[in-house]
Specification:
The complex is a heterodimer of chains A (about 325) and B (about 325). By secondary structure, chain A is of the alpha/beta class. Chain A has eleven helices and seven strands. Helix content of chain A is about 40%, strand content about 10%. Chain A has a seven-stranded parallel beta sheet with strand order 1-6-7-5-4-2-3, sandwiched between helices. Chain A starts with a strand and ends in a 23-residue tail after the last helix. Chain B is globular and about 60 Å long. Chain B has about 325 residues and is an alpha/beta fold. Chain B folds into two domains: about 180 residues, Thiamin diphosphate (ThDP)-binding fold, Pyr/PP domains (Rossmann fold, 3-Layer(aba) Sandwich); about 130 residues, 3-Layer(aba) Sandwich (Rossmann fold), CATH 3.40.50. Classes of the chains: A alpha/beta (about 325), B alpha/beta (about 325). Chains A and B meet through β3, α5 and α6 of A and α3, α4, α5 and α9 of B.
């Protein structure tokens, strides 16, 4: 049913980059745990949609992209901001309503953005950013660059109109865009399979738009890296979009208030055995990385998170002047004379 | 005197002028390329600028406006056409949740210099889903600028400002005005966003109008003049920024005001103008503020029914008599 992506020899990460990927995933996991703990302490308000378990998708993809490529994420997007170079302290400060937050405390957990690193936003209306990523890809094509745009989205987005409008437009305009579905098998509380006619909600639909697709192990950072490397190369060479469906699993519920009791215990247990960080650690060991190498990465990641928590906690609160700033490009909010 | 041009020709002229001066200006929309637009408002663009800058799209309003947004964030100045303004509802997420909020919610990290052009309004008998005046839909959303010109020259001048704006602009072109004629715009004509125009001076009553209601107000002013009533007509031209100062100054001269708007009374932009007058112009007024707006029903098809619903010259003349008699 799906059109094969026409893979060439799969790209791999050398030992140094695999260790780098491991450390990055450990950092993201640490930030997500910190976000959870800070919420329980009343220091993060609103809600959070934690990406623990999804780290390999963001890290594997980022390693396959260039600094000038564009990334669009969802409200479950902390991992993408961090993978594109937002610092742990910027992210935590944003969650903690601090003036030094990534978005000056005007976005919060659901809207982390690092535009000067090509991370052009986290969008909280399901599926809305797929057409926006098409626009960034169209822009690259118009400007004659070989940048690519990547939209990361959940399985739930595959049943919304914007998903299909974006895929069709990307296909007919041959846009350099990658649609990367993080299929964690649940929309919010409902299994995606129970509300979708196909087994693979993103990949199975790609063929309808004549877009190549691939299903990858989203918990294997190297598999994601390889898939995105191939798709990005296709896009850069003018061959158009690719749909990648990365199968993964949430470690927390949908959002802060969700204990995820709807997931069978055996299923959770099986997926926890396939923790992306454990997979990467085993592979490092298999390739001869020393215990010290791995422990060093663990310690560095832990230290960054600890320092980020301390620094974000001590940061100044949101600046009241920012409430009425930056509606318009001139920095202001005037709507009348 | 130069030949007059039509409002629809002015739309294409306004876009073409900006495409000539700025290579980052690109157009996308349904049937805008070789077909030159269902309203013929993109005539000549495909021929002059080619398929590389004038892009036909599928009937996918979310993809059209979403794509424009992504392009605007990454160095382009897209001009997206939504064929009928009624169809803004098909991509309202982008108008309500994405375009106006991105700059703000990212703490100023991105700018979104895009234009969404759309054919708005009634008077042509297109029925309930192709005739609405929906400028009030957009007016409720902080973060979007709104232009709605009434003359060919203003179309060109406001199009220049809209496309050059680093903020997103929704540009309402009125279906009922496409065939109307006016003076062509001089070279390099630019009308700043947020400047109303006093298009007819008067002393007894101010008529505040926008787009299609401007010629209605002007016709009403002619009729009122025959009755000895001197009406000043203010063409608001943009709803955001709203040039409240010009309206207040006019009411300062006339002490009476009738707001003429095509969107429904229920939630119409005139309610905000009336609110500003109540807050800041109360002592200028010698009579209650009056609004002539569309009736709060869907647009009917038959001319005889449509005239009952939308503003007409008769309704404006009638409405003016009340504050004059107060």
């Amino acid at each position: 049913m799906t059109v094969p992506a026409g893979s060439t020899a799969a790209a791999t990460l050398d030992d140094a980059r695999l260790l780098q990927a491991y450390e990055q995933m450990r950092l993201i996991r640490g930030v997500e745990k910190a976000a959870h703990d800070l919420f329980l302490r009343g220091l993060v308000k609103g809600t959070t949609h934690l990406a623990a378990g999804h780290e390999a998708v963001a890290v594997g993809a980022s390693l396959a992209l260039r600094d000038d490529d564009y990334v669009f994420a969802t409200y479950r997007g902390h991992h993408h901001a961090l993978a594109r170079g937002a610092t742990a302290v910027e992210c935590l400060a944003e969650l903690m309503s601090k003036a030094t937050g990534l978005n000056k405390a005007k976005g919060g957990s659901m809207h982390l953005t690092k535009a000067d690193h090509g991370m052009l936003g986290s969008y909280a209306i399901v599926g809305s950013h797929l057409p926006i990523a098409c626009g960034a890809a169209w822009s690259a094509k118009l400007r004659g660059t070989d940048q690519v745009a990547v939209a990361f989205f959940g399985d739930g987005a595959t049943n919304i109109g914007a998903f299909h409008e974006a895929l069709n437009l990307a296909a007919v305009w041959k846009l350099p865009v990658l649609f990367v579905c993080e299929n964690n098998f649940y929309m919010e509380y409902t299994p995606i399979r129970s509300v979708t006619a196909t087994d693979n909600p993103a990949a199975d639909r790609a063929g309808a738009h004549q877009i190549p697709s691939e299903i990858v192990d989203g918990n294997d950072v190297e598999a994601v890296f390889a898939s995105v490397t191939t798709a990005a190369a296709r896009a850069r060479s003018g061959d158009g979009p690719t749909v990648i469906e990365a199968q993964t699993y949430r470690h927390y519920g949908h959002s802060r208030t969700d204990p995820a009791t709807y997931r069978p215990a055996e299923e959770v247990e099986e997926w926890m055995k396939r923790d992306p960080i454990d997979i990467a650690r085993r592979r490092l060991t298999d390739r001869g990385a020393s215990t010290d190498d791995i422990a060093g990465a663990d310690q560095r990641a832990d230290r960054v998170v600890e320092e980020a928590i301390a620094e974000a906690t001590a940061a100044p609160d949101a600046d009241p002047a920012d409430a009425l700033a930056d509606v318009w490009a001139d920095g202001g909010a005037a709507w009348r004379t | 005197m130069a030949d007059l041009i039509t409002y629809r020709e002015a739309v294409a002229e306004g876009i073409a002028r900006e495409m000539r001066r700025d290579q980052t200006v690109v157009c996308l929309g349904e049937d805008i390329g070789a077909a030159e637009g269902v309203f013929k408002t993109t005539v000549g663009l495909f021929k002059e600028f080619g398929a590389g800058r004038v892009w036909d799209t599928p009937i996918s309003e979310q993809a059209i406006v979403g794509t424009a947004l992504g392009a605007s964030m990454t160095g382009m100045r897209p001009v997206a056409e939504i064929m009928f303004s009624d169809f803004l509802a098909c991509c309202f997420d982008y108008l309500a949740n994405e375009i106006p909020k991105l700059r703000y919610m990212t703490g100023g990290q991105v700018t979104t210099p895009l234009v969404v052009r759309t054919a708005n309004g009634g008077g042509l008998g297109f029925g309930a889903q192709h005739s609405q005046a929906v400028e009030n839909w957009v007016f409720t959303i902080p973060g979007l600028k709104i232009a709605a010109p009434s003359t060919p020259a203003d179309v060109v001048g406001l199009m220049a400002s809209a496309i050059r704006s680093d903020d997103p602009v929704v540009f309402f072109e009125h279906k009922g005005l496409f065939a109307s004629k006016g003076e062509p715009a001089p070279p390099d004509h630019v009308v700043p966003l947020g400047e109303a125009a006093v298009v007819r001076p008067g002393t007894d009553v101010t008529l505040v109008a926008l787009a299609y209601t401007v010629p209605i107000a002007l016709s009403a002013a002619d009729r009122l003049a025959a009755e000895g009533i001197s009406a000043e007509v203010v063409d608001v031209r943009c709803l955001i920024p709203l040039d409240a100062r010009t309206v207040l100054e006019s009411v300062g001269r006339t002490s009476r005001v009738v707001i003429v708007e095509e969107n429904p009374y229920q939630g119409g932009w005139g309610g905000t103008v009336a609110s500003i007058l109540a807050d800041e112009g109360f002592e200028l007024l010698d009579a209650p503020v009056r609004r002539v707006a569309a009736e709060c029903v869907p647009l009917p098809f038959a001319d005889a029914l449509e005239d009952i619903v939308i503003p007409t010259v008769d309704k404006v003349v009638e409405a003016v008599r009340q504050p004059m008699a107060y």
